[in-house]
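Good morning C.,

I know you're traveling, so I'll keep this short. The sequence:
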Amino acid sequence: MITGTFIDEITHDIPYQNWGPQEWARDFQAMQACGIDTVIVIRAGYRDRCTFDSKTIRALHPSLLVDGDLIDLFLTLAEQHGMKLFFGTYDSGQHWVSGHYQKEADLNRAFLDEAWARYGHRAAFQGWYLCHEINTFDEGVMQVYETLARHMQGLAKLPIMISPYIRGLKVCDDPISLEGHVREWDHVFARIRGLVDIVAFQDGQIDYPVLKDYLSANAELARKHGLISWSNVESFDRDMPIKFPPIGWPKLKFKIEAARAAGVDKLITFEFSHFMSPNSIYPAAHHLYRRYQEAWGHPS
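The tokens, ready to paste straight into the viewer:
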């Protein structure tokens, strides 16, 4: 059912698990045991942190926080388990959010060159992920997408993915209507057609009674513009007063079934290791893994 997951160890708003190679190896085994064949590095770097010792990012942040080479580790484990890995871009947390879109794009082009020279020969390196998230049409981010997607295509003809979010009631005070959402994303997809290959909308910002409508609209829009439609089935709970616990099993089940009904091509999640794994720092994630395996996997 869920056959892909983000990997988030350069975290933005969830805790570190402080795993080393042994812990990651156990988790890739658990991923494979429940049918995951694709891992997406949600960001290879963020502000002053990075998944490897990047010369590009160290020039920006001399006190770069990095320990070892996580990309090499993830590629090795993906290769051992027959998985594909999508490489996520760098988020400065600075340039693009303050309107300096060209700086964000230029920084990422150098970072992508460095990453491709370092890892491009690896068998599991099978895709790109543009980590800059939007919820409606944004001209500046469109320029970042266009610049980076063309650069990625020049490095290797691999699928390029985005995972936008819906401007829903759970994340903003002025939620968008379904009609407005369709209008905005029709505009976005027309702009990035031929550059981005896969769209995996996040599903956690919308109330459950209307979720199916938005998921169906997303899939229909993707088909209209020749995009592959995935659904990012969030396995954390946005309804609780804390950020963020593992989601309740009935909610996850509802969202999976809604995505199936919408006719998407693949289900992925944010994010297995923290919120669904039997190895997670959250005991509730261990139980969620068992409920999921009982329903659709191989109960243990």
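Safe travels,
E.
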